[in-house]
Write a structure and sequence with these properties.
It is a single chain. By secondary structure, the chain is mainly α. The protein has a single domain (6-209, 223-422), classed as Growth Hormone, Chain: A, CATH 1.20.1250. The chain has helices at 6-39, 43-71, 73-90, 97-111, 114-125, 128-139, 141-183, 195-202, 220-224, 227-237, 240-258, 267-292, 297-311, 324-352, 358-389, 393-418, 427-430. The protein is globular and about 60 Å long.
Length: 431
Amino acid sequence: MTRHRYRWGVVALLFTATTINYLDRQLIGLLKPILEPEFGWSETDFARIVMAFTAAYAVGLLVSGGLIDRIGSKLGYALSITVWSIAGMLHAVARGATGFVIARIGLGLGEAGNFPAAVKTVAEWFPKRERALATGIFNAGTSIGVVVSLLIVPLILARAGWQGVFLITGALGFVWLVFWWVYYDVPERQKRLSKAELDHIRDGQDDAPAGDADTRPVRWLSLLRQRSTWAYVTGKGLIDPIYWFFLFWLPSYFASNFQLDLKRPSLELMTIYLATTVGSVFGGYLSSRLVARGWETLPARKAALLIFAVLELSVILTRYASGPWMAVGLLSLAVAVHQAWAANVFTLATDMFPRQAVSSVVGIGGMAGAVGGILFPAFVGQVLDSYKSAGHLDDGYKLIFTICGCTYLVALLIIHLLTRGRAQVRLEDIT
């Protein structure tokens, strides 16, 4: 963290926290082939465990967004990672589906604070022209967390069993917390920050600095009256469940369709999730570059979203995958494009709303994504169980991939219709 590039050090902290967040979140999907026979789970049982996490995540997002806007990003992030790290470690003492459901509820409540706090931090530390790139970088942690889990889970599993996996990975959050508490504060209070960088940060921000926590509370009913809120809700509510499907079911997809051994590090899965890192950073770079070339902010974001929605149709071709590496290629593109889409949707919140309301908006949108994450896994579980009982599990995955590929264009159409005219929301409209 240098005095003249301190903001990028802040992004490094956000990236690391998001990596830990998705490392902890992904464990249940990686350990599914091991836990399933040990506890006698069906696909529907596993779907219920996933739904418990997403239900708690939805509630947590609704609460944490407003809470972080009130208490500030520093304390809010610290509280969030403390809760989810403790809950992650508690998975080690679960002795059945009910125990895992309880642990997943705690994990969901804690992890819900990550994105509201991270997006608010980007809004505080970056001018608009750099926000999409900064968001793309920290959002790449969602991919790296999965890749790290693919690397370390087999190693820990071989030496300490599945209980050790949860204990060791859960403890990483407390290591991050030390660095966050020592090195982070809002720009106006950060003594390590140079005046030149502070002036650069404030250049291009529409709203005046308000410190870490604003004294005027945002009224949620006023937020819900804004069409821009519903545009962001659409971008999250329809699309987030698709990425969660990629996280929780792809290991099982490769295990069942291509006999992948998940007790060893998987090059196939690592390739897929590494591709998402490229997608996240490129997605943020593309719209930021358009803004730098003179585009207005919202048209630049929409143009990027259109490109990515069209590219996402390629996931439908997975039905023709005749071998694991053909599936890897198609799914690598699909998840990379998803992350490019996600980086721009996150940035929409900072584009359309004042910084004092960003966490609240991200929380509401994230809750919508989590509600979709409750319903979609239930649908996926029923579909896969139905096709599995008929001896055609691969056809079940084909149907799911087709639905995933078409949803992005539908979401973009709704976003476009809701943001025609004035999309910028003023602070006085919502306080």
